[in-house]
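Hey L., structure's done. Input below.
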Amino acid sequence: ENADEILKVLGVPWAVRVAIRSSPQENSIELDGTLWAETTKNSVVSNIQMVYLDRSEQENVNPMDKSTSTMVSFVDPTSGAVVSESDFPKQQLRQVLTRTVENEGAVYHVENRMTLVASGKVLVANSYFDRILT
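Output:
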């Protein structure tokens, strides 16, 4: 899919992209009211993304070039998906992350849809994670 190309347009260096591709990834999610805390771990990075599901605007800093992006997140009332819409002004990108839990809670699915604003080109990457009971 386009996961590598999405990382590239976000400014992630080639060596880091290779390491990410070759490393198993683990995600964990905690929900506290309207706060969705998602921890992503692999051999390259461990990151906690705090997502406020009340449509409040959040500002994030790109760890590669320190540019800022804005994000608004919410629960889609029809599908129940957690949706995050982000704008990256410096890179001229628009991103929509759609997170769903599928197969009766057995699978976590993340669709990453990145639009290159200048050209209108859309990159889509889907990631699937099996639920591990602890």
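The CA atoms of residues 3 and 44 lie 16 Å apart. The chain has a mean pLDDT of 87.

-- N.
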